[in-house]
Amino acid sequence: MFFIETERLKLIPLPYHLLQLSHTNRAAMERSLGLNISAMQVDELFEAEYEDAMINFWLPKTREYPELYQWYTNWEIILKSDNIAIGGIGLAGSPVNGEAETGYMIDKQYHQRGYASEALQAITNWVFGHDDVHCLIAHTYDGNTASKNLLTKNGFVQVADEFGYLTYRLEKQLQPA
């Protein structure tokens, strides 16, 4: 199974069959990955966004594009030391005009430990490892100070504010020849 590994984390993109299992029985999905069962604590707003993404994006798109599922799915963020899922990160589809979009969530029990930053750096490196991508986009709400700080810390620059819904961009740094 494909995954990305960092010092403390493993990011596992869920293919269609694991997304289905996650949607119907998260504990069974975690067991199928050999993980300890999580008891994630997330904001209600994220729960609604997660359910919407699952039904209206991840499941239909991973089924439609199985060979590109990494671009259309939730990537489980696994804390290697505890072998437990502590959040999710993902992309909003394959790149369009050289741009990709990401989103993320960390279990409340694991906030303020640098895991979101580590996961964001890992997915950014993976995305920018594709020659056809030159920019990564992320969105957050103006009131989400932690997310705004995370994006800024990781080099993203705010480029838009539409009624408190902020857009951030990170441009790929070209390596000198």
From TrEMBL:
<dbReference type="GO" id="GO:0016747">
    <property type="term" value="F:acyltransferase activity, transferring groups other than amino-acyl groups"/>
</dbReference>
<dbReference type="Pfam" id="PF13302">
    <property type="entry name" value="Acetyltransf_3"/>
</dbReference>
<dbReference type="InterPro" id="IPR000182">
    <property type="entry name" value="GNAT_dom"/>
</dbReference>
<dbReference type="InterPro" id="IPR016181">
    <property type="entry name" value="Acyl_CoA_acyltransferase"/>
</dbReference>
<dbReference type="InterPro" id="IPR051531">
    <property type="entry name" value="N-acetyltransferase"/>
</dbReference>
<protein>
    <submittedName>
        <fullName>GNAT family N-acetyltransferase</fullName>
    </submittedName>
</protein>
<keyword id="KW-0808">Transferase</keyword>
<feature type="domain" description="N-acetyltransferase">
    <location>
        <begin position="35"/>
        <end position="175"/>
    </location>
</feature>
